[in-house]
Amino acid sequence: MESSVPEKGAPRARTVSAPPALTKDTGPVTRDVRLFWCAGAADALGSQASGVVLPLLLLGLGYSPAVVGLVAGVSTATGLVLGPLVAIPADRGRRKQVMFWSATVSALAMGSVAVALAVAEGRPSLVHLLTAVLVERTATACYEAAARGTVALISTPGNLTRVVAGLEAGDRGALVAGPALGGILYQVSRALPFLLDAVSYAVTAVCVRAMRSDLRAGRTDSADAVGTTHRADASDRADGASEPAAAPPREGSAPRPATRSVRGARSALVAEAGAGLRLVRTTPLLRLVLVWTTTVNGVLAALYYDALFTLQESGHGSTSMGLVLALSGAAGLAGSLAAPRLVRGLSPVRAVVTVSWLMIPLAAALAMSGGPWTYGALFGGFCLIMPLATVILQARAIQGTPPGLQARAGSVLAVAAGGAAAVAPAFAGFLTAHAGTAVPALASAGALVLLALHTTLGAGRVLVPDVPPKGTSAGDVLARRRDR
Q1: Which parts of the chain have pLDDT scores under 70?
Q2: What is the CB-side half-sphere exposure of residue 171 using CA atoms within 13 A?
Q3: In angstroms, rounded to a whole number, what is the distance separating the alpha carbons of residues 452 and 356?
Q4: What is residue 223's predicted lDDT score, i.e. its pLDDT?
């Protein structure tokens, strides 16, 4: 979500240009786009390879499922909490540095696990494993927060959907190849999947360092947008009850400039951290993206665990879930590769609405499924059609966000979607235990009906590009969106 400006010297006025039309996806794929694709694919491949075997490693070392769940839960929570905080320095102009050093730290963390497994006869301490996983998860959260603003800075006008679809294809391809490769390497040596993950992070760091784009959005964009949200909040307070006036200083009391300075710095930091949330809250387009991605992520997580519970209850082993993941990953890869061509021939509104309604019968059919091939076909249907809507919504979200707020707004969307995906398995497990294995799928289908209705009513108003007049600042764009 990112043209570069000088880091030092006088600030330069920055304007918001008209967003490129998604139906005219033209323009060259630049060297930096290819490097960014390579960085994302390498990162995803290594993470999938090591992520699938980490629970097996912990269980093989004798740790209980509760410990495995604790490690997974803490690492996920760490990423959700740190993402919005790290987005601040990324939006301030340190995007490339954050991405490079985050990938480097992740490579060292996973490399230490591989070395420990090789040296300690395959039995590293739990403290070492937990520390390495948390360090890697923290660094990955930093990388993802900074990377969210990169697409807009390296995309040429007209190829935004192609760039987004390329990133989606890399993730889907890693989902197909990563778990299988990790499992094969794990059978050879416990250390190899983690060594592959370390090498993949090193490749990511090299690709980021090789990118020629400055990856710094204009500082005035961020300051202008934050100032506008401050003024908007002030006007909201003026419409209602005003804040209590500060008590006058007592006679003879000395002023405390240091205290005021600390409070002012703290207030500014809070304002910057919350700017992404305020932008999402006041922008109809971003609210639609938030609702759509959060609902779909939660539904897919619930359906996946529902399938896992059902297959286990019917006597199918882990190979069955591997088949489901392979089929859905292959379908997702095909959908991602086809998305740019489909976007050129379809109305964005019609495409997103159609995908929203098509997901409902797929979810309902999962309630009546029992075999791995049926699950694989239905999940494959989900993953085949979803990239079309995902690419459109992600591209529109990038277009609808000022450059200086890309990382923070993206972190808000990511936290909401990640939180839904984290809560959904517990919800699916509760429904399965108390009402049967078919109920989570039926509940998911009901949630998708509400989402389809919401999308049908709102997509026509917000998915049309908002083209501001030439010379309009990011703060003016934000204020106008709020006034709608």
Answers
A1: 1-28, 65-66, 69, 73, 120-122, 157, 217-271, 273, 312, 314-319, 321-322, 464-484
A2: 13
A3: 5
A4: 43
Average pLDDT, the chain: 76
Annotated domain spans of the chain: 16-217, 275-484
- CA-based nearest residue to 32, from 139, 159, 171: 159
Tell me the residue type at 274: G
Query: pLDDT per residue over 325-367, tens digit each?
Result: 778 888 888 988 888 888 888 888 999 999 999 999 999 998 8
Computed on alpha carbons and rounded to an integer, the radius of gyration of the chain in Å comes to 24
Do residues 323 and 373 touch, judged by C-beta distance below 8 A? yes
Q: What is the pLDDT of residue 267?
A: 63
Phi and psi, residue 186, nearest 5°: -65, -35
Q: Which two tokens stand for residue 110?
A: 């996973």
Rounded Cα–Cα distance for residues 272 and 285 (Å)? 21
Distance from C-alpha of 405 to C-alpha of 88, rounded to nearest angstrom: 9
Domain over 275-484 is classified CATH 1.20.1250.20: yes
Q: What is the pTM of this model?
A: 0.69
Q: What is the 3 state secondary structure string of the chain?
A: CCCCCCCCCCCCCCCCCCCCCCCCCCCCCCHHHHHHHHHHHHHHHHHHHHHHHHHHHHHHCCCCHHHHHHHHHHHHHHHHHHHHHHHHHHHHHHHHHHHHHHHHHHHHHHHHHHHHHHHCCCCCCHHHHHHHHHHHHHHHHHHHHHHCCCHHHHCCCCCHHHHHHHHHHHHHHHHHHHHHHHHHHHHHCCCHHHHHHHHHHHHHHHHHHHCCCCCCCCHHHHHHHHHHHHHHHHHHHHHCCCCCCCCCCCCCCCCCHHHHHHHHHHHHHHHHHHHHHHHHHHCHHHHHHHHHHHHHHHHHHHHHHHHHHHHHHCCCCHHHHHHHHHHHHHHHHHHHHHHHHHHHHCCHHHHHHHHHHHHHHHHHHHCCCCCHHHHHHHHHHHHHHHHHHHHHHHHHHHHCCCHHHHHHHHHHHHHHHHHHHHHHHHHHHHHHHHHCCCHHHHHHHHHHHHHHHHHHHHHHHHCCCCCCCCCCCHHHHHHHHHHC
**Whole-angstrom distance, CA of residue 78 vs CA of residue 165:** 28
Task: Judge if 16-217 and 275-484 fold alike in CATH terms.
Answer: yes
The CATH class of 16-217 is mainly alpha
